Each structure stands twice: as C-alpha cells, then as structure tokens.
C-alpha cells in the first residue's frame, strides 16, 4: 500500500500564491439568474412551521438517560401504537397475494413516503452530467486498483448562483478479468491511497521548491547549506492502516480482497446536512434558491437521489458490473442507503448500518429516538409535512406517530426482492439504545413476507425468533435475500462487512474469500 507524501502545506501555499503563473487561467463570472434565500436553520424551520400552520412542536426526548426529559427505554411503554400498517394489505383492505397486486401496493406505499415522510423529488430536477477527472493507480492493501475522481454536475442554467458538484471516487481492481461488483459507500470522498512520486521525483520536487524559495528569500541559502540533508517533502513510509474494531482490515480492503470495487460518494456535495443549506444544494437548485414547500424532498431523499445519479454513471463504466451494484451507509447515511434501495430497484444489494428512526426502526415505537426528534432537530432530513407529526399546537390539531400513513416495515418491504442486509451493533460498545435495535428487528420481520411473494426468501433461519424475541448477538440470519445480523461492535457496520460480502457473493453466484465464515 502506498500512502500520501508528506508535504509542507503552508510552503506550497506560499509558492503557489507568489508564482507569476498562479492565476494564469481565469474564468468568466457566471450570470446570476436567481438569488438564493439566506436562511439560518432556525429561520428555515420557522418558515416551514408557518406554511403548515404549526404554532408549537413537542420537544424531542434527550438521549441522556439521566436527563429529566430522557427518552423511553422501558419496553413495557415502547409500543403505544400497535396498529402497524401491513405491507401486504392495500389501503382499501384488499390482501396482496400476487406480484401484480404488489406493484399497486408498492405505489401506495411510495405515495405515503413521498407526501408525508421523505418528500417528493420534483419533476424539474436538473439532468446530471458526469465528468471523469484524475485517474490514479493505487494499492488497497496489497492489491493494485484504479481510482478515479468522477464529478456529477447538475444543469444549473436556470440558477447559476447555485453550483452543485457531486463528488465520487470510483475504485476498481486493476487486474480484474471482467466487470466487478461494486459497493457505493456514503461518506467523505477522497483518493484512498494516492500514488506517490518516486525518490528521484521527490528529489526533483525538492530542488525546484528550494530554488523558488531562494528566489523569494536569498538569505535562505545559508539555512539550506547548514542543513544539506533536509528535504521539504518526502515519501511517507509504508504503514498498515488501523484495524476495524473486530480486528479485521478496513472495509475497503475486504471488498478489494474479494474482487469487488467500491465508490466513495460524498452526500454533502449533493445536499448539505443542515437546514440552512436547503436553499442551496440540489434542493435549492431545483427550487431556484427559494424555501421548500411542505411536500418537497428533504436531505435524506436528496442523498438517495444522488446515489441513483451515481448509478447512472456506473452503468457507463465498463469496469463495473451494473447488475451487481450495492449501496452502503451507517447512521444517517444508513437511512439514506435504505431509502436509495427502496426507490431505485436497479440496485442489487444494500447494507443498512445502524439506521435508527427514519431508517429501519419503526416510527410508531416509543423507544429512544422519537418522531419528535426527526420533526424538530432533524426536520431538514424529512419532508416539511413530517413536522406535522411532532406538532403539539397547529391549525390541524395535535398529531403523532400513529398518524403517519406508512412505517419502516413498509420501507424495508419496498426493497424486495433484492438483497437487503440490516446491520446493528450493541449499546455496550456505542451503538446507542437510542437507535432501538429491537424496533428495527421488528420492522424487518414484518417486512419479510414480501420476499417469498416475489420469488425470493425472506428472513431465515428464524429458529423461533419473533418480533418480540430477538436473536442473540452475532447470530447470522442470512439464508434469504433479506438478512439480519447484530454484531458485538459499536456504531459501525464494519464487523458485518465480511458477512455482507459472503452473503452477496452467494446470491450473485460468485466465489468468495469469506466462504463459510462463522
């Protein structure tokens, strides 16, 4: 594995900014066609409350178990709304018994999430053009890979004040004999292991840098003569990366070792992770810089849309098997990964890590994070309409989680019949009780019957497990296309990555280096 070279950043800044050619290329300023509203998060939230006629919101509970307003962790009080919508029952009460009827039911469920939970993607959302930038030949572990920066630029001709550039790094094995499966991973997007110059090239760089410094300050000649062996920049020695908390190599190493590729997709380049950014990013671009309407999409749906646009690019990449592309995320990005899979059936697999409320955990559960938490503090993740379910005083009256027309078991069901792996850790290691692991298992069990209806296997083997009787930690329920595994680590899906890879390989019909892991 080759790591980044160690370069003195302030010195480079000095050299670049004092170089005669530093600003040799200029671009003409764009002509503004819209003026984005400048709101703080508080101002944006207040604007949406006014649109909805909400005078006051119930405060979300505290995650601190010792606080007076702490979240509920008493299982006897966790299910105040037991009437959870059934994914296989139409709104008119008709039971869904055929794949054809499921398509009608799927449309009903999607409408519920569109109108009231995640919001609608506008019909006028701009087309995205992808451009391949630098291509680097790197090593992940001891395997050669090709890493390339890919930028997706939505058409901003209707609002040139808002510039959106979706950043993704695509990494594929260099020695693959054909297209490979690939996992899109939500998170920061940077070259994972940039190729370094050779020792000879570093020597040339050092000579050039010293010459430039001497031109600016000839007195440095004496300093360089007193320290003849000093180098301004040098190669970073080989170092093994930090291990995952289960002792395994990093997730990217595990993927490449098994012949997979991966793409690092930065969701914040699609849409900012705050309310103040809603008049910018892809949401703001589509709205010409103006505040959202109640049914408009929130950040979670925007991130999922960004992943679908990334898929558009991957379909054109000859190194990638577009029929074996998955999506992965943890925490808020776990929510976005599940939403991506629910809305875009082109994805073959999803690894949903510790997603909590707004992801795999039942919205109707009163355990840990609450609907009020999403409607208040995290309102910008959701459609504006979602705030109604945290309202204590509004023109529509007081609403709560039982008024939401859909729930997370139906969100999970929308991913059928594809590969869906629900992953959690344990509170003792930092995967907080706030996430309600049991509420996610309940939702997964309730979603499971949709898989056999569509010709796949749901959760199996269950061995007597029920929504009220969770399997022990580190138990594999991975014989079907819907899978569950709670590992004994913290707020991460890293300990489950090798299980996900082996499981996906089995259904993709390809050999796995993780065959028969226990």
Output the keywords.
single chain, 518 residues, alpha/beta, Rossmann fold, two-stranded antiparallel sheet, 14 helices, 13 strands, 28% helix, disordered N terminus
Description:
The protein has 518 residues and is of the alpha/beta class. The protein has a domain at 107-193 and 240-508: Rossmann fold (3-Layer(aba) Sandwich), CATH 3.40.50. Helices cover 28% and strands 16% of the residues. The protein is built from 14 helices and 13 strands. The protein has helices spanning 9-18, 41-52, 99-116, 199-216, 220-226, 251-257, 281-286, 299-314, 332-343, 371-375, 408-413, 437-447, 450-453, 497-508; strands at 6-7, 54-57, 128-140, 143-154, 166-173, 180-186, 233-234, 261-265, 320-330, 349-353, 391-394, 419-424, 482-486. The strands form three sheets. A nine-stranded mixed sheet has the order 3-4-5-8-6-9-10-12-13, with helices on both faces. The protein has a two-stranded antiparallel sheet with strand order 1-7. Strands 2-11 form a two-stranded antiparallel sheet. Strand 3 and strand 4 (143-154) form a beta hairpin. Helix 8 (299-314) packs across helix 9. It is globular.
Order of helices and strands: EHHEHEEEEHHEHEHHEHEHEHEHHEH
Q: From the 3D coordinates, which CATH architecture of the domain at 107-193 and 240-508 would you assign?
A: 3-Layer(aba) Sandwich
Question: What proportion strand?
Answer: 15-25%
Helix/strand class: alpha/beta
CATH homologous superfamily grouping of the domain at 107-193 and 240-508: Alpha/Beta hydrolase fold, catalytic domain
In the CATH scheme, the class of the domain at 107-193 and 240-508 would be Alpha Beta
